[in-house]
Here is the input.
Amino acid sequence: MVKKASAGGQAKGRPKTQGEKPAAEAKRYHHGDLKEALLDAALSHMGMTRSLNFTIRDISKMAGVTHAAAYRHFPGKDDILFLLAGRGFKLFTEALRRARLDQDQDPLAALRDQAKAYIHFALHNSTYFQIMFSKELLARKSDCPVDGSEDSFRVMESLVEHLMERGIFKDMPLNDATTTVWASIHGLSALALEGYFEQAIAGGGVDDLVTRLTENIFYGLCKD
Here is the structure.
């Protein structure tokens, strides 16, 4: 409790001991908000720079805390990237699942809706998308897999399998068919992020672009 100032002096409070955290920082750390603040700072930094190159000091400064406090949560940059990638894949998988709800009525249209959801996610969550499919994570995939990184592929694979069971897609290895669909949609998403379809998107929107570009891709997999 701070004492009131006397007539001849200034108010004095409890002396700050050596190494004591500022009150605001101590409060955030105590309530577990610091970890989220650092993750938000990392996303903001990568979004502004369009690069995954950052240091713990960079994001500590953005979050308004000492780098020593940040290191208590994240020993290194990779720890942040892997956690954010896992969150990104969770959001991504949920978006793909929502897009295939009407697969029994028209599975080919459902697959096209998944393609739209895929590209919409890339455009509206570009930083997550960049992290999720980065070379940094791919290089460590075998020894440190990202949580949920395979789930989005399985959602797409399930729909492709449904198309094959219905006799709509040609008979071929399921993984080959799914990889063809995935690589095509991912390629379109990556190009859209780089601005290659700006005029087309401005003219007719993302959904119209996806419908036109995926028509030949999907029908190439269909039986005659």
